[in-house]
Amino acid sequence: MTENIVYTREQAIDFYRMALEDLKASKLLYRHKRYPLAVFSLQQSIEKSFKYYGIRTSLWESKVGKLGHHPLKMFYGPVQEQLRVQKTISKNKDAQDIAATLSSKMGVDYEQGSKEMLEYHNSFISIINDCKGYYYLDEDTLSFRINELMEICSSFDEGYNNLYSKEVTKEQWDNNIDSLLKKMEIASIDLCKEHSIPQEKQDDLLSHLESLKIQSKSSLDIYRARASYLLLLFEIGTLLIILSTIISSHEQLSRYPFIKGELPEIDDDIDPLSYYTKELPLIKHFPQLQKYTKITLDLLGEMSYLLDDPSLLKNGEKNSEAQSLPNMT
């Protein structure tokens, strides 16, 4: 791929549509026991899903060629930029002192933050390197990773339902907003008097508070929509990381026979046709991986809906698109 291509929303959607097709192909190939190509098609579906996710969330902007078949790299790309800035600052004592002072004012430990940023960066490099060991994925490790996927989906389902539960009604929300803004109004008037603020300025402030009160009448709907998006963003990213960790190493192995020593991670001669059999843990649990890939794609579709229209509610009820979330269990 050519570097420095900036993809549009429409081109990102092409990735999504191809991811759906790759998943369908994977299911068809698996059903007919064409296991190596089924694995490759699933890997492609997950990779394209990740790229769609990266483009639509601006996590991945114009680093197409650098990512290649390792979309996990998009997560530590922004951290690399932070580390680059950190390195520049460390060469200038004055800049370092200013950065530390600003961090202190914001209640942040400058040195600890720098250390954590480096650890975060290294952890993703470690994940990508660990993926190479997933050529020989054993039953226990794969089962553990699949259980992770199941628990994450269950947790998300609960969080999403809680977000739209009727525990906090629109009337309760509005009453709380009214109470909060009333307290702000009283406190503001007291401060204005204490500091002899001109009446004109006081009137402007009260007008602003009144405007804020009107805007806040719909803020529960807006809050739910935004929280839904953030919840989806975290959920999808986590699912894609786990799925990529499991499957990314098979992008090459499922397509070509390899001779021992040809790849550093391969310690034996491997022919895909004889390697990917029903006895291989990856193939035994393959329908579960396809299932969670489908859930991820469904959630990506929901995320796209929220990106295009952040309002999920109509007359206090979720509309049909918002009710179309997949079965998580």
Descriptive terms for the model:
329 residues, mainly alpha, 14 helices
Mind explaining what this structure looks like?
The chain has 329 residues and is mainly alpha-helical. Helix content is 71%, strand content 1%. It is built from 14 helices and 2 strands; from the N terminus they run ααααααααααααααββ. It has helices at 9-31, 35-56, 64-67, 73-90, 93-105, 110-131, 139-163, 170-194, 199-215, 219-247, 250-253, 272-275, 281-284, 286-308, and strands spanning 313-314, 317-318. Strand 1 and strand 2 form a beta hairpin. Helix 2 (35-56) runs parallel beside helix 14, helix 4 packs antiparallel against helix 6 (110-131) and helix 6 (110-131) crosses helix 10. The longest helix is centred in the last third of the chain and has 29 residues, at 219-247. The two termini are 37 Å apart. The relative contact order is 0.13. The model is unreliable at 309-329 (pLDDT under 50).
Strand and helix layout:
Blueprint: H1 9-31, H2 35-56, H3 64-67, H4 73-90, H5 93-105, H6 110-131, H7 139-163, H8 170-194, H9 199-215, H10 219-247, H11 250-253, H12 272-275, H13 281-284, H14 286-308, E1 313-314, E2 317-318
Helix pairs in contact: 1-2, 1-14, 2-10, 2-14, 4-6, 6-10, 7-10, 8-9, 10-14
Bin the strand percentage: under 5%
**Count of individual helical segments:** 14
- Radius of gyration (CA) equals 25 Å
Q: Give the termini distance in whole angstroms.
A: 37 Å
Helix/strand structural class? mainly alpha
Kindly state the number of beta strands: 2
Major sheet description: 2 strands, antiparallel
Give me the strand/helix succession: HHHHHHHHHHHHHHEE
